[in-house]
Amino acid sequence: MSHHTAGIDILVSEVGPRDGLQSIPSIMPTEAKKAWISAAADAGLREIEVGSFVPAKLLPQLADTAEIVAHAKTIPGLTVAVLVPNARGAEAAIAAGADKITLPLSVSETHSLANLRRTHEQVIDEAVSIAGLIRAQPANHRPHFEGSLSTVFGCTLEGAIPDAQIARLAAALMDAGCDEVGLSDTTGYADPSAVKRLITLVRNVVGDAALTGIHLHNTRGLGLANALAALEAGLTTLDSSLGGIGGCPFAPGASGNIVTEDLVFMLEAMGLRTGIDIERLLKVREIVSAALPDEDMYGFLPDAGLPLGFAPPKQMEYV
Amino acid sequence: MSHHTAGIDILVSEVGPRDGLQSIPSIMPTEAKKAWISAAADAGLREIEVGSFVPAKLLPQLADTAEIVAHAKTIPGLTVAVLVPNARGAEAAIAAGADKITLPLSVSETHSLANLRRTHEQVIDEAVSIAGLIRAQPANHRPHFEGSLSTVFGCTLEGAIPDAQIARLAAALMDAGCDEVGLSDTTGYADPSAVKRLITLVRNVVGDAALTGIHLHNTRGLGLANALAALEAGLTTLDSSLGGIGGCPFAPGASGNIVTEDLVFMLEAMGLRTGIDIERLLKVREIVSAALPDEDMYGFLPDAGLPLGFAPPKQMEYV
Questions:
Q1: For A229, which of B228, B259, B262 is closest by C-beta distance?
Q2: Burial code of A47-71, b = ≥16 C-beta within 10 A, e = fewer?
Q3: How far is CA A150 from CA A72, A87, A111, A146, A217, in A?
Q4: Ramachandran assignment for B190, one of left (phi > 0), alpha (psi -120 to 50 degrees), beta (any other)
Q5: DSSP state of A316
Q6: Which residues form the Pyruvate carboxyltransferase domain (chains A, B) (predicted)?
Q7: Which of A110, A119, A143, B301 has its CA 20 to 30 A from that of A129?
Q8: Which H or E run includes A120?
């Protein structure tokens, strides 16, 4: 969870510059990424996952992540998040000054080997090393450390993952020194019941305060219904991607993040404050589509527009 | 609500042959409509809105509704529903043998005048006449009569409609002799909070048993999230359209029914029994797309396919 959530009910964490850009063949110019991040922050986004510290030969789309972090760090009040696959990536993330570091751990070991080329035990060892690196920083320079349980709603290679395995890995991440864990529907297999069930399962292991966020895909159209289920279960951080770009390049057929524009519309319409100005958010699309002329952008709200006279109820309690 | 809901938790009411076909320029051949309805029933759908008794010059796409009703009535266990704009339409529906008659009443009077060319008072008068026609039938030939509150989540012409006006019109429909009322998000303005709020509002007026169904659009991407909210509020009948075709031709920019395939996937994944075989349902698309080569069909599940090893939990309680 972000450190900058004053005055908002739900933190929308924009993952487009990382999850979106890593999943498409086009490489966005560094200046366009900076313009995107600045415009998104201007529209009110408080947390942006700006890149990933992975070898440039694996993901050339994100080779400029250090420069992007440095730019994002100049924006007041923005939580600058990055993904890292291992301790080496975390070292670079800390050096660059990231506020939040996420290490994915695929609860499917088959997917873990395919995606991170590591067994569960090896990923947990990396988590231990990362926690050590963070503890070695001065107290006011320690990034928040999240372990993200990916393929937690099922894997395109293994199918369903046993609850006991998920619980064991959630506990192992916390024991390794993570500040919290997150849930990730890498494959778009989640449904609202499964979302609620797994939130309960993992919270019973790590405690309520150590599970606040979820990363959902819209692969089978249930993305916003799953987001609603997560809200109802008490989560307060939801990942999404502008224009819905991105997904997971190592889980075939699993593309499609939930669309930031549609998610923010749902939340604001429900009277949940995001701090985001929808009209300004819609304008951010122009920056992204101009810089990625060969990529499709998705979203229903951008096509349909806001309802006539739309004004979100102020601080209305969600019923 | 259908009379044929034994063994299922949620009734998915397919409205594609009516709402879908009335909203597109192509006219589907009568034989294709019959094949669609038969295949949908074979896949397990228990209620299908097969047409509308409106003048052929207004909706030539539905001019064969009497013949379609006659065909649908040969299918055992199927509730054959139709829409009517007035008592003349209801007379034709009764003569054809429809099991369920729905009269839309737009809670926005501006939209009512544009859509049905009638004031609220005139529509209520039609409801009184229709109830009289139904009462005059032998007891075992009386169709179920629903008054559908359309534009209830807001109107593209008027914006938000006052609660008191909605409550008054719901009561007036019941007083006129409707068996139940339904809610219809004609314009795609609904959000999950509004869904729950309006269900409570209308149930407080008509009683829980007289509001069981909702008609949602996916105009702004919230269709399935709104469906989830409706389920959680206790509704048991959800309208949807195969391939998401259709919407409201008289509410500009309001196209897009929720997609039957995606809805059924969500419900079954949640352990809610629909009685519908998803694999067979997906095959019904081939009939529709072959008969409507110029129309787009939507849906995420049809593109992504079922999750690996997908088997809905049996009679699992929704958490």
A1: B228
A2: bbbbbbbbeeeebebbbbbbebbeb
A3: 26, 18, 9, 12, 12
A4: beta
A5: P
A6: 10-282
A7: A110
A8: helix A120-135
C-alpha–C-alpha distance, residues A38 and A74, integer Å: 9
Taking each helix axis from N to C end, the angle separating B192-206 and B223-232, rounded to the nearest 10 degrees, works out to 40
Asked if A221's CB is within 8 angstroms of B299's CB, the reply is: yes
Is B248 in the active site? yes
Q: What is the ipTM of this complex?
A: 0.93
Alpha-carbon distance of A158 to A112, in angstroms, equals 11
Q: What residue type is assigned to position A134 of the chain?
A: I
Name the region of B274 (left: φ>0; alpha: ψ -120 to 50; beta: rest): alpha
Q: B230 CB near a chain A CB, below 8 Å?
A: no
Q: How far apart are CA B251 and CA B19, in angstroms?
A: 13
Pairing of strands A47-52, A237-240: unpaired
- B186 in helix, strand or coil? coil
Looking at beta carbons, which residues of chain B come within 8 Å of A219?
A: 300, 304
Secondary structure (3-state) at B276? coil
- What CATH number matches the domain at B11-304, 3.20.20.70, 3.40.50.150, 3.30.70.100, 3.30.450.20? 3.20.20.70
